[in-house]
Design goal:
- May affect the rate of fibrils formation.
- The chain is mainly beta and 359 residues long.
- The protein has three domains: 52-105 and 121-128, Alpha-Beta Horseshoe (Leucine-rich repeat, LRR (right-handed beta-alpha superhelix)); 139-230, Alpha-Beta Horseshoe (Leucine-rich repeat, LRR (right-handed beta-alpha superhelix)), CATH 3.80.10; 231-358, Leucine-rich repeat, LRR (right-handed beta-alpha superhelix), CATH 3.80.10.
- Helices cover 4% and strands 14% of the residues.
- It has one helix at residues 2-15; strands at residues 57-59, 62-64, 83-85, 93-94, 107-109, 117-118, 131-133, 152-154, 176-178, 202-204, 223-225, 233-234, 247-249, 257-258, 271-273, 294-296, 324-326, 351-352.
- The strands form three sheets. The chain has a 14-stranded mixed sheet with strand order 1-2-3-5-7-8-9-10-11-13-15-16-17-18, with no helix packed on it.
Amino acid sequence: MKSACLSLLLVTVCWALPFRQSGFLDFMFEDGSGDITPTPTLDMQPPAGPVCPFRCQCHLRVIQCSDLGLKNVPEDIPSDTSLLDLQNNKITEIKENDFKNLKSLHALILVNNKITIIHPKAFVPLMKLQRLYLSKNLLKDMPVNMPKNLQELRIHENAITRIKRSSFEGMVNVIVMELGSNPLKSGGIENNAFLDLKRLSYIRISDTNITSLPKGLPSSLSELHLDGNKISKVDADTLKGLKNLAKLGLSFNEITTVENGSLANIPHLRELHLDNNLLTHVPPGLPEHKYIQVIYLHNNKIAAVGTEDFCPPGYNTKKAMYSGISLFSNPVPYWEVQPVTFRCVFDRSAIQLGNYRKK
């Protein structure tokens, strides 16, 4: 009996598999049936993480490649990048595939480069882009196919001479737009160029060559800055429909006339800048305007101020009192201005007169 048992044990041992030491993480390679897969070899590498472009600084999803003298957009930008900063480099061209994998990009900063060309399809992959900064480059044309989700566009200080009807087509989400310091002319802005900008709240078209207020601006505007241009007249028709406008900047133009009814078309205006122009009279319509609180008229050619130029005839009929009126550097004899002229001013310290020097 003992001999039979010993023979059976020897047969079993002969058919057994060789002994294998189980590793600590071998349980990760077991399937549902309990079978054991072979132990991973020692030369297996862990999965590669996002690569930071050479010389750039990367933190979380922010890639900063500014001030590096780059002549091209880096090729190895992580696909999950949220903000890409390429300002202050020497990039001259944006190619078709420069941003092809950056579908999660929210902000792109290309300020102060030497960009002259942007490929028509360069921005197509950037479906989530909300902020695009292209200021201080050498662009002569507005980029095409800009992302429809864009909320902020800053493209001032370029060489753009024309804004086409198609430039902002479909860009219904833009809230802030900066177009100043471009050699734009009034004739270079096509009719209805701003038609699709349904949510636009702030726009600056300063320091250009335009000679009149742009037409067809969206009714959503709350701030319109047109300082430093060559505008000679404020036409009432160009302000029609701007019912939400709260701040209008027209400083440093060549304005001689503000047409009757202009202020009536912007009934919720709070602040009006008309300083450094060629006005000879206080603009009409101020006494009837219920909400205007600040008006800059300094450094014009205003020689007289009447008792009803700013305030309505009766007391306590203006809903918002003035908190600032600047009239200094005008040829008006301030000692001749009647105190009752400023009866609807919140505080006399808000009135600035005098300091006029003949040229």
